[in-house]
Amino acid sequence: MGPTGNPNQEVELLSECISLVANALDKQAFTTLFDHYAPLIRAYSLAQEPGADLVADELVQEVMIRVWLKAKSYNPCLSNINTWLFRLARNCRIDYLRRNGRFASGIDPTEIFNQIEDDSPSPFLLASQSRLQDDIRTGLENLPQEQAQILNKVYLEGKTHREVSAELRLPLGTVKSRVRLALKKMQCLIAR
Amino acid sequence: MIRNHPGDELLSSYSAGSLPLGQALCVSIHSEFCTNCRKKLKRFSQVGGELMLRLNRATVSLDLKNTILNKIDEDSDSLERDHQDMSYSGKNKVSNVRSGAGESSVPRGLRQFVKSDYQEMPWRRVAKSIHNIELFKDDENTKVEILKIKSGGSVTTHFHLGDEYTVILEGSFSDEDGLYQQGDFLVRNSWDEHTPVATQDRDCICLAVSEAPLQFAGFFKRLLNPLIRLSYSQN
Ligand SMILES: [Zn+2]
Questions:
Q1: Cα–Cα distance between B132 and B125 in angstroms, integer?
Q2: What's residue A93's pLDDT?
Q3: In this predicted structure, what is the pLDDT of residue A76?
Q4: Which terminus of chain B has a smaller tally of CB atoms within 10 A, N or C?
Q5: What is the CA radius of gyration of chain B?
C-alpha cells in the first residue's frame, strides 16, 4: 500500500506532507504525495472509464496541481486527508465530465459539490473521525460481496442507482437497500 | 425546524459524486440549511476516501510525473492564473458554507443562478398563482427550476411522469401530510397525489427538480409535453 504499513501512521505522514507543501512549498513532500495518490487517482478515473488512459492522465494532472495550489485550504482538524483527496478527485471528475458534454453546460458543478460537508471544528471531531475511519475499514473488510460490489459501482465507477440496477438486473429497491446495509455495517448511520 | 430530509441513499450518492446534477443541487441546498445532513455527507465522503485507497494502483508514467513536477516549478502565481482559466473555476470560492450568509438570503449553491434576491429574477408566469425560473436542464429528461407560489396559491400535480424533488427556499406550504418550511426536502413519485398550498402569509419559493422516466424520452416526450406544461394547474 502506501509509504508505511500502518494506516494511521500513513495518514499522519501524508498530512505532514500536505502541511509542508502548504507552508514551505516543499517539492519533496509534494513528490511523496504524488507517488502515493497519483496511481490511485488514475485507478479512480479508469474505474469509470476503463481504457481511457488520456482521460486518466488528465485527471491526475488536474487533481495533483490542485493539491499543490490548494494545500493551504486543507485543515487536518476538519477532515481526513484521504477524504479530502477523494473529494478533490470526485469534483474534478464531475467537472471534467461536464466540460466534455455529459452534463448540463453553463453551470458550475464545483459550486454544487464544494465543501458543503465541512462543519466548524469541535474538540471531539478528530477522535470521532479516526474512530469512524477504523469502523469504515473494519466494515469494508467484512462486507458481503454483493454489497461491496454495489458500493464500488456507486462510488468508484460513478454510477447512479438506476444504472447499477439496470447493469446488475436487480430491482432498484434492492440496490438501495444494499447501499443502506453497507453504510450501516460501516457505522455510518449513527450520529457521532 | 427542518423535519424532512433526503434519505441516506440519496446523501451517499451525492457524496459518491454519482447523483445527477439536479438532484445533487437539491441535496446541497438542503444541506446548507441542515447541520445533520452535512455531518452525514462528511461521513459518506470518508467512505469514498477509504474505497479509493483500496483500488488497485494504476501505473503512472514517468512522463506524466515530470510534466506535473515541471508545472509546479513554474511561478505559482501564473500557474494559478492559467489553471483557473483553463478549468474549474476558482472564482467565487467560499471556503465555508456559512461565510457570506449575512449578505444574501440565497443559499450559496444557488448564487451562480440567483445573485442576491429572488425578486429581481426574470420570473415567468406559468399559471395563475405560479411563476418559475428555469435554471438548467440536467439532461433531456430533467428540469431544474425555481418556483414561486403566490401566498394561498396551490399547485395541483395531476400528472407528472417521474420523481420530483423539492426544497423550500422561502415561505412554507402545506399538503395532506403536513406543513413544510424553509429547508425541508421532499421527494414525490408519480403515483403520489398531493395538493400543496402555499401558506397565506407570504409567497413560497422553492427549488424543484422534475424528471421524466427514460421511456418517455424522444418522440413520446414531445407528444406529452403539452400535458406536462398543463400540470401546473390554476387555482
Ligand atoms: Zn437534513
A1: 6
A2: 94
A3: 83
A4: N
A5: 21
Is residue A77 classed as helix, strand or coil in its secondary structure?
coil
8 A C-beta contact, residue A67 and residue A38: no
CB contacts of B112 in chain A (<8 Å) are 107-108, 111
Give yes or no for residue A167 having a pLDDT over 50: yes
**Contact between B16 and B44 (Cβ < 8 Å):** yes
Cα–Cα distance, A169 to B22 (Å, whole number): 25
Which residue is associated with the grid cell 465507477? A157
For residue A79, the chain B residues in CB contact (below 8 A) are 42, 45-46
- Using a 10 angstrom Cβ sphere, with 0-12 exposed, 13-18 middle and 19 or more buried, the burial of residue B44 is buried
Global pTM value: 0.86
| H or E stretch at B10 | helix B8-16
Q: In this structure, is the dihedral angle defined by the CA atoms of residues B96, B102, B107 and B112, taken in order, positive or negative?
A: negative
Q: Which residue has the cell 462528511?
A: B42
Question: What does the pLDDT look like over A22-43, one tens digit per residue?
Answer: 999 999 999 999 999 999 999 9
Q: B95 versus A21: which is more confidently predicted?
A: A21
Measured CA to CA, the distance from residue B131 to residue B146 in angstroms comes to 8
Write the single-letter amino acid at A107. Answer: I
**Secondary-structure class of domain A1-117 per CATH:** mainly alpha
Where do the domains of chain B lie, and which CATH numbers do they carry? 8-53 (no CATH), 110-230 (2.60.120.10)
Query: What is the topology classification, in CATH, of domain A122-192?
Result: Arc Repressor Mutant, subunit A (1.10.10)
Check CB contact under 8 Å for B138 and A103.
yes
Say which of A39, A79, A98 has its CB closest to residue B60.
Answer: A39
Which pLDDT score is estimated for B20?
87
CA distance A133 to A78: 14
Instruction: Report ipTM for this prediction.
Output: 0.93
Q: Which three cell numbers stand for residue B66?
A: 515530470
Task: Give B148-192 pLDDT, tens digit per residue.
Answer: 999 888 876 545 567 889 999 999 988 878 899 999 999 987 666
